[in-house]
From TrEMBL:
Any one GO molecular function term: maltose binding
Organism lineage: Bacteria, Bacillati, Cyanobacteriota, Cyanophyceae, Nostocales
PANTHER family named among the record's database cross-references: MALTOSE-BINDING PERIPLASMIC PROTEIN, MALTOSE_MALTODEXTRIN-BINDING PERIPLASMIC PROTEIN
Organism: Dendronalium phyllosphericum CENA369
GO CC, one annotated term: ATP-binding cassette (ABC) transporter complex, substrate-binding subunit-containing
Entry protein name: ABC transporter substrate-binding protein
SUPFAM superfamilies for the chain: Periplasmic binding protein-like II (SSF53850)
Keyword Transport: yes
Family stated for the protein in its record: Belongs to the bacterial solute-binding protein 1 family.
Record keywords: Signal, Transport
Domain of life: Bacteria
Amino acid sequence: MSKKSWFKFWGLIAAIAIALITLHSFQISSKLSSPTAVTIKLSGWGGNPVEQKLLKQVLQDFETEHPTIKVKYEVISDQYMDVLKTRLVGEAAPDVFYLDALEAPFLMSQNVLEPLDSYITPEFDLADFAEPLLNSFKYQNQIYGLPKDYSTLVLFYNKKAFAAAGLSNPPKTWDELQSYSKRLTGKLNRYGFGVTPELARQAYTIKAFGGQVVDQNGYATFASEAGLQGLQLLVDQYRQDRSSALKSDVGTNSGNEMFGQSKVAMVIEGNWAIPYLTETFPQLEFATAEVPTINDKKGTMVYTVAYVMNKQAQHKAQAWELISYLTGKQGMQKWTGTGFALPTRKSVAKNLGYDKDPLRSPLVAGVNYATPWQFGKYPEAIVNNFDNQFISALLGQQPLKQAMVRSQNAANQQIKTME
């Protein structure tokens, strides 16, 4: 090799070495200057597969917009609250998780949730949330959760059955509903009305004449004379009129199903029934209306779920970024845009046209006068005892008052042992 070639060879080697050293230095510098991605664990319960797919897409969008935050999404498919409470005690709970309004009062009182007030800025526009939904996650003047979606209850009615019975409009009062139910029974459907005898669906009837499910201390009070008046309407319709049916009477598994199979002409259900009915029973012609008034009072139920933050979360700023995205205007519109869930923000509902939608506008209208699905710190005792006894009264196995007094006393005894 000539001297000139020799110098060229070693010049090339030197250039490559310098390039490799420079690249290595750049990589080290990049690692030092780029923050490591933080992982936030999010837990919820399983739902409709389409909903799950939609949520995962929203989470992917969040990660794209927040490249330094990764979300580990975990579905707790069974015994959700039991699993969550165990993990909270053991300090292994997720950073962010779903919390149903029914369970919120207990957890909010246990100092395991992070108050969100200090994270909320004016730009977040808290006033945009429907106030009754937000109030379900307030405790001692602090906000512990931001509602992600909700549903009220509305009357679903079979349009063909109504036409066959000569009915052109939905009932506006409960007296009309009972009258319609008699006319519809035995026509195109076996029964006029399908009833679900659970506190989750009947709490608003207790309040129609001034009754309350619980008092200010969280003790059951639904067996009052005022509370019994609303419940008696259901018992009379089932026992005397014979114009309403339980799901077991017609061999179905739910109110949605007995309506979809045209076993009943009317049923009171929530937003979840709309995609179920349109997909499972595409030939069914149905419409919705606000729940008929009882004692000249509007009433329905409202169910809502919030995103909450674990007080022990290690990365609270990033956890808030996730919550604020999911419950912000952009994230909520993505999540509720298909109609599987209703947005808790008034502006999003308006943007999506749900307040004008023929099927969903009655659901939206009900949120301001609905009874929240929330009964103090120990709701399980109240719900279980009510459900166990009310069905026996409906079936005629004992008088309504006796059944409700028994369930109220049993619930309150249980609550005393838990306090």
